[in-house]
Design a protein that fits this description.
mainly alpha; 5 helices; DUF1232; UCP031804; transmembrane
């Protein structure tokens, strides 16, 4: 059986660089993908949870990794392909959310609702 080596899914990079990339590209990617991802509110809540200093470090790192995969312009299924482009991203995000849902607090969910309402009116 082949081993999966670090960097095959996400390129190796310092954690701070990954966080910065997620912060820089998240909203633009979300705007493109929101209609293809029926759980966009959960994704945005995960974003707020990932950058909440009260969130445990290992949870933050996991969420940021999943969100980094979401914002990568190239991945297993290219995001520019209509309908299926965000399928792999959605799968990674759903799995991560299922594992870490207990860390996403009502304040993160409320911030997500407000942010998505603002995004829809722009």
């Amino acid at each position: 059986m082949d081993e999966i080596r670090y960097g095959e899914i996400l390129p190796p990079e310092p954690e701070a660089a990954r966080e910065e990339r997620v912060k820089r590209k998240f909203w633009k990617t979300l705007a493109r993908a929101a209609s293809a991802i029926p759980f966009a509110e959960d994704v945005v809540a995960a974003y707020y949870c990932a950058f909440d200093p009260q969130t445990p470090t290992r949870v933050r790192a996991t969420l940021i990794g999943a969100l980094a995969y979401f914002v990568l312009p190239f991945d297993v299924v290219p995001d520019f392909l209509a309908v299926v482009g965000f399928t792999d991203d959605a799968t990674v995000l759903m799995a991560t959310l299922a594992m870490l849902r207990g860390h996403i607090k009502p304040v993160h969910q409320e911030a997500a609702r407000v942010a998505l309402a603002r995004l829809r009116t722009e």
